[in-house]
Amino acid sequence: MLQTQNPANDNLQVYIDGQLLHRDAAKISVFDSSVQGGDAVWEGLRVYNGRVFSLDAHLDRLYDSAHALWFQRVPERDTVIDAIRQTLLANDMRNDVHIRLTLTRGRKITSGMDPRLNQAGCTLIVLAEHKPPVYPESITLATSSVRRNPPMSVDSKIHHNNLINNILAKIEANQAGADAGLMLDKDGFVSEANGVNVFCIRRGEVRTPYADYCLPGITRATILSLCQDHGIPHQEARISVSEFYTADEVFTTGTMGELTRVRAIDGREIVNKHGASVLERVQAHFRELTRSGGTKLL
Ligand code: PMP
């Protein structure tokens, strides 16, 4: 599974530092913290019928991440929302749109790690692209030897741009011929895949790893509350890789790909031994939420 360039995105207008610029002209300073140290936070959002899904939850996570990283001069919420609106309007975008919202610590006066060298910024970037959900009908996973960062090194609650740990897992998955890398915690329990959260369904119960090591995904939270609302048994748990191998169904969640069935992990086919698909029920409820929910910006 490899995304290709969509010609509809050839002339994108990108919001950067208060301006809307053609994608070829939208540039970032070599002194920007994101270049210097991956020192930035981000959100991926999706637009359905002109409405941004879970906008408040995404902005809350963005502001929490920026606060945890001691960002200064963070733009007001209204400024960020207006930047998203301007970008969608400039590109005439309403549907099948993915937004990558990035907030960097800003420009440094000279190269270096110290955040006190940041005397301008933050830098706000809104990159909206025509991008339907990126995953095919089903995907495969390969367990990675790279562990997901534990909170004693980098807390997964901070949605930062230091993605090397996950990129290494993705490289392993590519080498193994799988679509994504399954990342474990330091004790060997499943944490998440390199860019999405993971769920398994066993005997009708929907389970997902605690958010101790994984990103507390917005889609993940939506699925847990949707199960609650519709009386579908569910729990967060410590789950081993073999419990994933032997589950009835496995799926991933994320804004970029929505809900995607996993058909095999490390070559072990996921076989449903206990009746009707619970995933299909969950998917139908999720589709209903994206059809009717979201914040109208246009
Ligand atoms: N895990 C990781 C590592 C991610 O980067 C993402 C995407 N932001 C997710 C999970 C899914 O999160 P969400 O449902 O908020 O898009």
UniProtKB/TrEMBL annotation:
Name of the molecule in the record: branched-chain-amino-acid transaminase
EC numbers, comma separated: 2.6.1.42
Top EC class, one word: transferase
Gene Ontology molecular functions: branched-chain-amino-acid transaminase activity
Pfam families for this protein: Aminotran_4 (PF01063)
Catalytic activity, reaction form: L-valine + 2-oxoglutarate = 3-methyl-2-oxobutanoate + L-glutamate; L-isoleucine + 2-oxoglutarate = (S)-3-methyl-2-oxopentanoate + L-glutamate; L-leucine + 2-oxoglutarate = 4-methyl-2-oxopentanoate + L-glutamate
The organism's place on the tree of life at top rank: Bacteria
Sorted UniProt keywords: Aminotransferase, Transferase
Family to which the UniProt record says this protein belongs: Belongs to the class-IV pyridoxal-phosphate-dependent aminotransferase family.
InterPro entries found in the cross-reference section: Aminotrans_IV (IPR001544), Aminotransferase-like (IPR036038), BCAT-like_C (IPR043132), BCAT-like_N (IPR043131), Class-IV_PLP-Dep_Aminotrnsfr (IPR050571)
Pathway membership, UniProt: Amino-acid biosynthesis; L-leucine biosynthesis; L-leucine from 3-methyl-2-oxobutanoate: step 4/4; Amino-acid biosynthesis; L-isoleucine biosynthesis; L-isoleucine from 2-oxobutanoate: step 4/4; Amino-acid biosynthesis; L-valine biosynthesis; L-valine from pyruvate: step 4/4
Species of provenance: Neolewinella maritima
